[in-house]
Amino acid sequence: MSKKKLLITFDAFGTLLSPKQSVAEQYVEVARRHGLENLDPRRVGLSLKKAFRQETKVHPNFGKASGIKPPEWWANVIKATLHPFSQSLPERLVPNLLKHFSSSERYSLYPSAASFFNMIRNKRKQTLTRAQEPWPWDHTVVGIITNSDNRTPDILSSFGLDVSTKRFRATNEHAENACGDEDIAFVVLSYDVGVEKPDRLIFDAAKELLKRSLGDNNRAAQIGGALASNEAEHRIEEFELLHVGDNAKHDVLGALDAGWNSILLDRRGRYSKRFKQGQEILSLGIGPSRRRRVAVIQDLNALSFWKASSCGNG
């Protein structure tokens, strides 16, 4: 018997959101306002990649393991990025760059992402007919799983999305309430969980938040620890689990290894030539020897055509 309830989680950046300009161009723009002239976006971009890799190596997961808060972590990246071009940075440059990337002003919500959230809202209000929007699920819970820090919920909210304050904590704290009508029922940040995708624990954290959101937390399981109550596990098993993202390793293979279904969102058109005319979903082999079949879509409008059996979970 097919399930009628869906937990669908999304990666954030590159899946729902994209910068309006390249990050390097925005660094140059802000730096210019602070008196740093003649910066080349290409060179700044290369320096940014180097600084990001180095900071990630020394202080993984935005500084979580080192006890560093994300603002300090990003400040280190900004300073290392711009240091080759200026030995002394203006005092307000770093905090202004941090603020610069904290709202919808500098990001775009992909049109198909906006359409998805509108469709889910209308589905909940029962204002759609099946002919208008063939969304096959009777109950849908939407979450975010992202390798990111605590700016992400505020950025999503700044687009007018109703984002719940529910976040993962590795404790048995109670859920605030059962899932309501929020656009996004919870946000799982790698910084909160302590691991990044593709680690299965971050996907387990999303299941835990679903369980808490459903109100079944009287014997909430610790990640990797004790089993949850039979009732809570039963309610979770009523849900199909699906993760959607644009990174094959972090999103798709990570979700598959955690026992989820997954969809690869091909934003860059890498597989566009393989789609036949009118084809919404492509079945593709990825991973070692390309033996793992996954569903590939070109935009989120194709989600309505996905079925759990289309590629399975591994």
User: Approximately how much beta-strand content do the residues carry?
Assistant: 5-15%
Largest sheet, order of strands side by side? 5-4-1-6-7-9-8
Largest beta sheet, briefly?
Answer: 7 strands, mixed
Oligomeric state as shown: single chain
What's the total helix number? Answer: 11
3D shape: globular
Order of helices and strands: EEHHHHHEHEHEHHHEHEEE
Q: Helix coverage percent of residues?
A: 25-40%
Distance, first to last CA = 20 Å
**How many β-strand stretches?**
9
Mean model confidence by pLDDT:
87
Structural class computed from helices and strand pairing:
alpha/beta
Question: Care to describe what's here?
Answer:
This protein is of the alpha/beta class. Helix content is about 35%, strand content about 15%. The chain is built from eleven helices and nine strands. It has helices spanning about 25-35, 40-60, 60-65, 70-80, 95-100, 110-125, 150-155, 190-195, 200-215, 230-235, 250-255; strands at about 5-10, 15-20, 105-110, 140-145, 185-190, 240-245, 260-265, 280-285, 290-295. The strands form two sheets. Strands 5-4-1-6-7-9-8 form a seven-stranded mixed sheet. Strands 2-3 form a two-stranded antiparallel sheet. The chain is globular. Residues about 170-180 and about 215-230 have low confidence and may be disordered.
